[in-house]
Amino acid sequence: MKKVEINPDFKFEFETEKELFSAQMSGYIDVCDVVRVCYRYVGSKGSIDRPLKSREDYINTIELYNNSEDIEILEVYQDKWCYDRNDYL
Questions:
Q1: Is the torsion defined by CA of 15, 18, 19, 21 positive or negative?
Q2: Which of 84, 24, 28 is nearest to 54 (CA)?
Q3: How confident is the model at residue 31, as a pLDDT?
Q4: Can you tell me the distance from the alpha carbon of 32 to that of 11, in angstroms, rounded to the nearest whole number?
Q5: Rounded to an integer, what distance in angstroms lies between the CA atom of residue 85 and that of residue 33?
Q6: What gap in Å lies between CA 46 and CA 42, rounded to an integer?
Q7: Which pTM was predicted?
Q8: In whole angstroms, what is the distance from residue 83 CA to residue 11 CA?
Q9: Lower Cβ count inside 10 Å, N or C end of the chain?
Q10: For residues 51 and 45, is the Cβ–Cβ distance under 8 A?
């Protein structure tokens, strides 16, 4: 299965999950840079596309998926994301 290289040029607002968590506790995060990963489980027809909101999560996720025999990474791309706690109440 094709392995995906970690791209050091991707931009993130948050370097660590701790920084992201602290920002989310404020209740609002303005539009910021994230990376999305589109993947599928081998043998599945559907795919999943999820945001990776910190560089730490990005590196850990790519390493995990690269080392999994059951997951195929289809695409990894830069995107934008925002958060407002009121959207979830």
A1: positive
A2: 24
A3: 98
A4: 9
A5: 18
A6: 10
A7: 0.92
A8: 17
A9: C
A10: no
